[in-house]
Amino acid sequence: MNVRRRLIPAALASALGLGALTACSSDSAATGDTDKFDVVASFYPMAFLAEQIGGDHVNVSSLTEPGQEPHDLEISTKQRAQLEEADAALFLKGLQPAVDEAVAQTGIKTKIDAAALTTLEDHGTGGHSHEGEEGHAEEEGHAEEEEHARDPHVWLDPVKYAEVAEGVGKAFEKADPDHAADYKKNTAALVEKLNGLNGTFENGLKDTKTKVFFTNHAAFGYLAERYGLTQEAISGLDPESEPSGARVRELQEEAKADGVTTVFYETLVSDKTAKTLARDANLKTDVLDPLEGITDKSRGDDYFQVMEANLKALQKALGAK
Q1: At residue 236, does pLDDT exceed 70?
Q2: Positive or negative, the Cα torsion across 306, 311, 316, 321?
Q3: pTM for the whole thing?
């Protein structure tokens, strides 16, 4: 599976302190027909940035519906018109082919590619260790391609997300100079808050009984790397892929060796595989949210609340002291 299909991350505009927004609306009126700076975001993490940085000066809509897996997105005729009418598009190139194509074909002046604002890395299917992955690459049709794909889940690392935020802020300042001072101020406030979240994670995860955690798919490589943890994913970057029998046996053995207590799953994809592994290995299950979108099943109303819930889940599973 090419990482481009795996765009993680589904969207809606649930902004912190911005009230009801038109994000996720597919109506052409949602974007382009206002006197504000109209931004079309590809999915939730991009919409959240636009809302936080833009404040009252922006009108944000999202191409990905709440609860929808972003990599499944197909662009409608209305959404293409939405892009044409917008002042800016904010997306993560290489993750949603349909979005990349649509943005490239539009005459929109400001195209902000979040992937170009930080460094994407190759995390394979785990957080630190890739040992044993060669066998899986041979067994699964697309595993080898995933193994060397760039991991797109940068927003799950507050430090990298802050880097993206700074780049988005500068792009807004350039595209809408009349409100540049506010964009600069809002960006600084968001970056400060992300830095604070980073500190909270550092303190919360520095002393744990184990450093290894199991996830449904490899969404948490940046987070694991940032905080000295090891992610072991049942599947690769694609949450829909089925693990090999060898991979399941390997995880069962590793759970015993590393004191793993919990298999994490997420709200937007099936938990069947995670629960099967947990049952066979006598492990618990819990939710670790990759923040691809906010739904009524999310443990929080925005990025920060869900990330704080993720921290608590990790602390419990890893035996934080």
Answers
A1: no
A2: negative
A3: 0.81
